Amino acid sequence: MTETANSTRNPAAWWRDAVVYQIYPRAFADADGNAIGDLKGIASRVPYLARLGVDAVWLSPFYPSALADGGYDIDDFRDVDPRIGTLADFDEMVAALHAAGIKVVVDIVPNHSSNRHAWFQAALAAGPGSPERERYIFRDGLGPDRDQPPTDWTCSFGGPAWEPVGDGQFYYHMFAPEQPDWNWDNREVRDEYLKTLRFWADRGVDGFRVDVANSLAKDFSEPLPGSAELAKIPVGPDHPLYDRDELDDIYAEWRALFNTYDPPRFAVGEVWLENRERLARYATDKSLGQVFNFDLLRADFRAGEFRSIVSEHLAIAERAGSTTTWVLSNHDVVRHATRYGLPLTVPGMPFVGQGPTWDRDRQWLLTGGANPVEDTALGLRRALAATAFLMALPGSLYLYNGEELGLREVADIPDDARQDPIFFRSPGFDVGRDGCRVPLPWTPDGPSFGFGPGRANLPQPDWFADYAVSVEDADDASPLNWYRRALAARRRLIAATPAKLEWIDSPADTLHFRRGGWRVFTNFGDAPAPLPAGRVALTTAPLDGGLVPGAATVWMA
Ligand code: NOJ
User: What's the half-sphere exposure (Cβ side, CA atoms, 13 Å) at 312?
Assistant: First the structure.
C-alpha cells in the first residue's frame, strides 16, 4: 500500500479508512410523526453522529417509492419521498452533516426502477416494439396465446422472474415484480444514470453505494437458457445476469464523471461474488473504487475464519489499489449480536450457523417454546469483540444503525406487520429482513421509544427500552459508550500507524496482530487466554488479572 493509503496524509482519500455509518432512513428518526423516519429526523441527530465519531453516513434509499422493497423500488431517482422530506430538507441535512465534518454517501440503484417510474409507465403505454420498451427487458410470451413466460427463471425474492403485461409481452425482474430491470445496452439508460449521479454529486454528496453492482449488464440474446442450464453457467463473463465484462465500460464512464469533481467522488459496490479475482475489478481506480467484502456476514465467530477472510481481502484490496470494507451487519442480514448468540449446531437441524438468511426454523430458535436458544449476553460480547478486532484493521469500517446500541434482531414480528417482499414471496417460509429494520429506540418510553412523536412503522419489542440511546448514554459500561471510546481510539491508531498489519503467533482460538506500535489480541474461544504484554488501550470486557476472558478483544498501544 502506498503512503496515500492513509486519510490523515491525504484528505481526498478519506474513504480509504473511513468509518461509514449506514442509516436506514425509515428506521432512524421520525421528526414529523408519520411513522416513517425522515431527513429532518437525521438532521436532528447530527450531534449524536458526531459524538459517536463516524466519518460518513450512507443513506439507504429515501427516494419516492411505494416501498414494495423497502425503498429499493424507486419511482424517481432525483427526488425525495414526500413522507421522508423534500430536496430542501436534503440540502439542510447535508449542510448539517458537513458542518459536523461528516461525509454523505447515497444509495444508487442502477439494476432496476420501480414499476411506477415514468419510463416504465411510458413503456407499458407505448406497447411492444417501441423505443420506450427498449429501456427495459421486455420479451414476447411463449405459446399460442403468448401467455407463458419466456423462461422458467425465478427471481431473487422467490416466484417467477417474468411478469406479464397483458399484451403478449413479459418484463424481466431480478427482484420483486415492482422492480423491472433496466436494459443497460440502451444509451438512454446510461445517460439517465450519469445525470442522476451528477445531480447528487452537485448537491454535495461525497460518494455512492451502488446496489447490486454486478448485475447491470445482461445478455438476453436468444435462445435463453432454461433455469437448470442457467444454474450451471459460472458467474462471470458468460453468465447472462451476473458479473459480465461489459460492466467495466459502464463504470469507466461513471469513474470519468466522478473524477470531474474535486475531490473525486467515491463509490462502493454491493457485490456478492465468490470469484475473488473478479471482485477486485470493481475496486480499482478505473471502476467504482471500493467493493464490499461480505464474507464476515457469512462467517462464524472463529479465529481461523476471521484470519483467512482478513488476509484474503487485504490482498484483494492491495491488488486493486484500494482498501477493503469490514462489515458485520446491514439492512439485509440478521443483526450480528443475534447471529453470534445462536449455537452453531442444534440437534435435528442440519444447519443453524450464522449465515445471513433467516428462515422459520431459525426464527423458532429465538422465539419457539419455553427455551429460546439465543444467548444474548454471549452474542453481545462476541459482537463487541469482533467489532474491536475489525476496527483496528487497515480499510474502512461500515456500521449499521443500531449496532452501536448492541441491538439484536427483532424475531417476533407478527406476520401481519411484516413488510419485506421476501416474506410474501417465499411464501412465509423466509421471514425476511424486517427484524433488522425496526425503528431505533432513542428513549425508554413514548409511543415509539423516542423514534418519533407517533408510532413506529414496525412493532418495537418491550426490551428496546433497555437499549435506548438515553439509557445507554447514562451508562458508562453501555455498548454506545464503548463504541464512542473505541472509535476515538481508532482515530489515534490510524494517525499513528502504517496501513499494513503483521500477524503475531498466538494460542489456538486467538488472533494477534500488530500495526505499527499498536497490537490487537482477540480471544475467540470460551476459555481465558493469557494477556500479551503491553499497555492496555481498549478492551471489550473486563480483564481478569493477566487473562483475557473468552469472546473479548484487547488493544495495546
Ligand atoms: C440489495 C439491497 O441491499 C436490498 O435491500 C434490495 O432488496 C436489493 N438489492 C434490490 O434492490
Answer: 15
Same domain, 280 and 374: yes
* Share in percent of the chain as helix, strand, coil (round to 5): 35, 15, 50
Structural domain range at position 138: 118-172
**Cell digits of residue 539:** 478492551
Q: What is the mean pLDDT of the chain?
A: 92
Assess whether 339 and 465 both reside in one domain. Answer: yes
Ligand 1: nearest atom to the Cα of 111: 11
User: Does any ligand 1 atom lie closer than 6 A to the CB of residue 178?
Assistant: no
Ligand 1 touching residue 175 (CB < 6 A): yes
Instruction: Output the domain CATH number for residue 508.
Output: 2.60.40.1180
Q: What pLDDT does 545 receive?
A: 86
Average pLDDT over residues 357-381: 66
CATH number at residue 466: 3.20.20.80
**With a 6 A CB cut-off, is 212 part of the ligand 1 pocket?**
yes
* Rounded distance from Cα 211 to ligand 1 centre (Å): 6
Q: How far is CA 33 from CA 22, 458, 460, 505, in A?
A: 22, 14, 16, 54
Do 222 and 154 share a structural domain? no
Domain-embedded: residue 494: no
Asked if residue 381 is part of any domain, the answer here is yes
Is residue 322 situated within a structural domain? yes
- Give the pLDDT score at 276: 83
Backbone phi and psi for residue 226, each to the nearest 5 degrees, phi listed first:
-75, 170
Residue-wise pLDDT for 106-123, tens only, equals 999 999 999 999 999 999
